[in-house]
Amino acid sequence: DGGITQSPKYLFRKEGQNVTLSCEQNLNHDAMYWYRQDPGQGLRLIYYSQIVNDFQKGDIAEGYSVSREKKESFPLTVTSAQKNPTAFYLCASSITNKNTGELFFGEGSRLTVL
Amino acid sequence: AQSVTQLGSHVSVSEGALVLLRCNYSSSVPPYLFWYVQYPNQGLQLLLKYTSAATLVKGINGFEAEFKKSETSFHLTKPSAHMSDAAEYFCAVRPRDDKIIFGKGTRLHILP
Q1: Paired residues of B111 in beta bridges
Q2: Which conformational region is residue A28 in: left (phi greater than 0), alpha (psi within -120 to 50 degrees), or beta?
Q3: B103 interfacial to chain A (CB closer than 8 Å)
Q4: Which chain A residues have a beta carbon less than 8 Å from that of B104?
Q5: 3-class DSSP state for residue A26?
Q6: What counts of helices (H) and strands (E) characterise chain B?
Q7: Which of A65, A75, A84, B47 has the fewest CB atoms below 10 angstroms from its CB?
C-alpha cells in the first residue's frame, strides 16, 4: 500500500546528542514537509521541500536540518542547537506544493530528550 | 497573513448529540479548506476538503462541513456523536499557490 513511513516511532536521547528522524514515501509525491506538534500549539512547519536537492525553511527551522537527496526520502536531524527538542514530529507529503491537494501524513515520531 | 482560527480548544458533547466544531479563516480569496482528525499518538487523517466545488462537503465517518464565504467559516458537523469520534480535529487552509496553514486544534470529548 502507498503511504508515508516514519521511524522510529519513539526515540529517547540524551541532551546534546543529534538525532535523525526518517521519513519515506512511496506515493510519488514531489513535496514533503516536517512539522512539530506540541500540546495546544497545533502544527508548526519546520522545513519543506518541493523538489529533490532543494528545501526551504519553515517557521521554526532553527536547530533542525534536512536533506532531500531522493524523491522518496526526507530525513530530519534534530541538532544539539535545538533548545527544546522534546515533541511529536510529523512528516507529510503532497503531489506538489501548489495545487488543491491535501497533505498525507505519516504516523509520527515522538522524541523525548532526557 | 493568512490565518485559521478554531473556536474552543476543548469541546464536550454527549453520545448521540450533534457535533459542531468551528473554524474561521482569513483570506481575501476563497482558499482551499480541510478538516483533519488525529487520534492519540498517530498522524493526521483527512476528513474532508473544500476545493471550490459544492459548498457543502461530505467526508468520512459521517462528518460534513459547509463553506460560507460571507462568514469566512468552514464549520465541521456530525448529526450524532459516537464514542469513537473522540479525537483532536484540525482545520486547515491552503491559500492559492501557498503552503497549508493549520489551526491549533480542537479536542473533542464524547460523554457517555
Answers
A1: B14
A2: left
A3: yes
A4: 40-42
A5: coil
A6: 0, 11
A7: A84
CA-to-CA distance for A31 and A96, rounded, in angstroms?
A: 5
Confidence of residue B95 (pLDDT cuts 50, 70, 90): confident
Contact of A27 with chain B, judged by CB distance below 8 Å, is answered with no
Select from B59, B42, B69, B48 the least CA-distant residue to A91.
B42
- A-chain residues within 8 Å CB-CB of B33? none
How far are the Cα atoms of A8, A22, A88, B42, B61 from residue A109, in angstroms, in the given order? 6, 9, 6, 9, 26
Residues near B52 by Cβ (< 8 Å), separated by ≥ 6? B30, B32
Residue written as grid cell 464549520: B75
Nearest neighbour of B105 by CB, restricted to A42, A92, A98: A42
**Which residues of chain A lie closer than 8 angstroms to B36, CB-CB?**
105
Q: Do B97 and A45 touch (CB under 8 A)?
A: no
Which of the residues in chain A have pLDDT under 70?
Answer: 1, 97-100
**A95 Cβ under 8 Å from any chain B Cβ:** no
> Which of A4-13, A29-38, B78-87, B95-104 shows the lowest per-residue confidence on average (mean pLDDT)?
B95-104
Neighbours of A34 (CB within 10 A): 26
